[in-house]
């Protein structure tokens, strides 16, 4: 069983059959607003953490636990019209919190189980990268903003992802470029400007080096 956590603002591309038709997937989907679950401790950033793991491959034991928990949630939701609405809504909140807490104690997909304190420098870098990737592209600038040495920043990034801070910065810029090329009609020069490149040719060289495709070729393939 694959447990997939799609957070606000994220887009998922689901698998398709060889002929391009939607794949035959069997899934239980739980949709909720960020303010519906009861407030969880700050050290357990599950539902509103944009940088948490996107998926977990569940073993048999965890599969059964989540299957029963989701079945309880579905039963209470179906009974909502027939029961006291306030009590049932609160019960739904608590059942959802239980599922989120079960997710929080799962090991990360790579099998590690780092504490929140250990992850904190990397999490700070993630947030700063999300704010600044269009204006800062040098790893030492991020290290300076966060108050770490470049060596320390690279160490925490490699421990969390296996990549250096510079590689993660370039990957984030490349991802945003792909999104704009695939989902907007903006000219390549405009995308280049939005991502902080001084010249469109510099952007094209960067994108081609990162993806082995020119921006134009990538856009044509997506359409």
Give an account of the 3D structure.
The chain is an all-alpha fold. It has 2 domains: 2-104, no CATH class; 116-222, Homeodomain-like (Arc Repressor Mutant, subunit A, Orthogonal Bundle), CATH 1.10.10.60. 55% of the residues lie in helices and 3% in strands. It contains 9 helices and 2 strands, in the order ββααααααααα. The chain has helices at residues 60-78, 85-104, 116-132, 139-146, 150-161, 165-183, 188-194, 200-211, 215-222, and strands spanning 2-4, 55-57. The protein has a two-stranded antiparallel sheet with strand order 1-2. It is globular. Mean pLDDT is 86; it is low at 113-117. Keywords: DNA-binding, Transcription, Transcription regulation. This is HTH araC/xylS-type domain-containing protein.
